[in-house]
Specification:
With 108 residues, the chain is of the alpha+beta class. The protein is built from four helices and four strands; from the N terminus they run ββααββαα.
């Protein structure tokens, strides 16, 4: 089961969908499996940050129609610091949710 948190960015981000610019203000952060995390880290090039790749992989941009769009490393790298701080806050909320879930369902 993947847990998620939803939030609103400080500044809308734009994605291209079939050559049309779509603004997204809402985001959804979801937990990654270990395999997903390793795959994301493997794609990182020299000089790139694993943490940004992981954050991008966890994040889906959500448009006004409710459609989800991929956030790329480059988009995350170029977004405003206010957006990045918001994503960090949401990631913290996701971690708290994961911790609470694990306390309620301890493994054997």
């Amino acid at each position: 089961m993947r847990l998620s948190v939803v939030g609103v960015l400080a500044v809308a981000m734009t994605v291209l969908v079939k050559d049309e610019a779509v603004k997204c203000k809402s985001v959804e952060l979801s937990d990654l499996t270990t395999g997903d995390m390793f795959a994301v880290r493997q794609r990182a090039k020299d000089g790139e940050f694993w943490a940004l790749h992981e954050m991008a992989a966890k994040t889906q941009l959500v448009d006004d129609q409710g459609r989800k769009h991929t956030l790329t490393y480059e988009m995350l790298h170029d977004t405003s610091s206010a957006n990045f701080k918001k994503l960090e806050e949401l990631d913290y909320e996701l971690q708290k949710k994961l911790n609470a879930e694990s306390l309620g369902n301890p493994s054997s």
